[in-house]
Amino acid sequence: MPLKDVNDGAPNGTFDASQIPDAVPQIHKGPVKNSPYTVLGKKYYPLKTAVGYQAQGIASWYGTKFHGKATAIGETYNMYSMTAAHKTLPIPSYVRVTNLKNGRSAIVRVNDRGPFVKGREIDLSYAAALKLGFQQQGTASVRVEGIDPRTYKASYTSVTNKPLLKTAVKKDAGSSHLLSTYQAAKPQTDRYADTPGKAHTTGASSAHSKKLFLQVAALQDQQSAFKLRHRLQQLTGMPVKIVEGTDTQRPLHKVRIGPLPSSTVVNKIQQQLNEARLGKPHLVVE
Predict the structure, then answer these.
(1) Rounded Cα distance, 145 and 152, in Å
(2) Pick from 186, 210, 217, 211: which is nearest to 282 by CA?
(3) Tens of pLDDT along 216-274?
(4) What sign results for the dihedral spanned by CA atoms 18, 83, 242, 16?
(5) How confident is the model at residue 20 (pLDDT cuts 50, 70, 90)?
(6) How far is CA 214 from CA 71, 217, 253, in A?
(7) Residues near 30 by Cβ (< 8 Å), separated by ≥ 6?
(8) 171-285: what fold?
(9) Which of 39, 131, 196, 272 is a Cys-bridge partner for 9, taking CB atoms 3.0 to 4.6 Å apart?
């Protein structure tokens, strides 16, 4: 439940917005959270549906301070996923958000309540703000449009093979945050440092050091690879890339988690994938 917090910020690292897939609208078959609620003395009455919803206002974003914490719907907030918080849209629901300054748009899944700051329309994940191009400014004028999952037809586009996370994570702090999160609950996401700043490297991390990846699958169907990538991002909170290859002249889409900061993290993610029955991934060193 995002409230204004001066200690919130962006994660360490440099990210490629082109690697971030939109949320894919899906028909929700479970209960929808749209009961009236009160925050800071004000009562809110959520809508029954997001279909037909249109509004313009100010968008903000929330990041490291809330990463790994529970959302209003009981899910784990992942700042690398395309999600959002809204005061009155039903959760879960899907909306298209358009940055009115640069024309960029993205589809996000509403799974949290907020922002409880006067004049704010929607609070986006760090990934969504990055994709819309206002992560540096902090806020942007946007248009929000509800999506009907029953009529929406997802379209997938090709992606490059560059990993989402380009810079190294500090081994001591990053790994300990990851391990504590994995031990707390499953499924869960990783936690990076709570304050933004320059990415750290260890003695083993140099421009020529090898990078660790876990290859989960090699699929012929591109859409299946995209769906698996999205699931792995949600499950682990780590960057996931798709490497194009061939096998006896058949195209293959190799889904790899990483780069991973240490062998300890590799082992923990292998264990998590095994518990989720996602096969037995093998280590790839690049």
Answers:
(1) 13
(2) 217
(3) 988 888 888 888 888 887 787 777 888 887 666 677 888 999 888 888 888 888 888 88
(4) positive
(5) confident
(6) 28, 9, 14
(7) none
(8) Alpha-Beta Plaits (3.30.70)
(9) 196
